[in-house]
Write a structure and sequence with these properties.
mainly beta; 2 domains; 4-stranded antiparallel β-sheet; 2 helices
Length: 107
């Protein structure tokens, strides 16, 4: 099964560098993500598509907000996204995201 993957093959944002030569490891590969991070992945995860990045894509997608301005939810209409920044007691910045709503009669 390891014959189906070669160095240089790409799986999503991952590029295969070399087979895993660590002791007691089977069917895994050293890969470099587009972000520069290197990680080991099992052959099965690369081939079935469950490994697409080192995890950096998950963080990027999670941090992106969807603009809901103008969308209706029952009687509510989103009129603006509100982001506020405030200093927290430990000195770090706290960010709060909220949505401003306007009650509308049913359409």
């Amino acid at each position: 099964m390891a014959d189906t993957i070669r160095a240089g093959d790409r799986f999503g944002a991952l590029t295969v560098i070399d087979i895993d030569n660590r002791p007691h490891r089977t069917s895994s590969w050293l890969c470099r993500c587009d972000c520069g991070q290197e990680a080991y992945f099992y052959t099965s995860r690369l081939l079935n598509g469950s490994a697409k990045s080192c995890g950096c894509k998950n963080h990027t997608d999670r941090n992106q907000q969807t603009d809901l301005t103008g969308k209706r939810f029952g009687h509510l209409l989103v009129i603006a996204a509100v982001t506020t920044r405030a200093a927290s007691p430990n000195g770090s910045a706290a960010v709060t995201a909220a949505i401003r709503w306007k009650s509308m009669p049913p359409a």
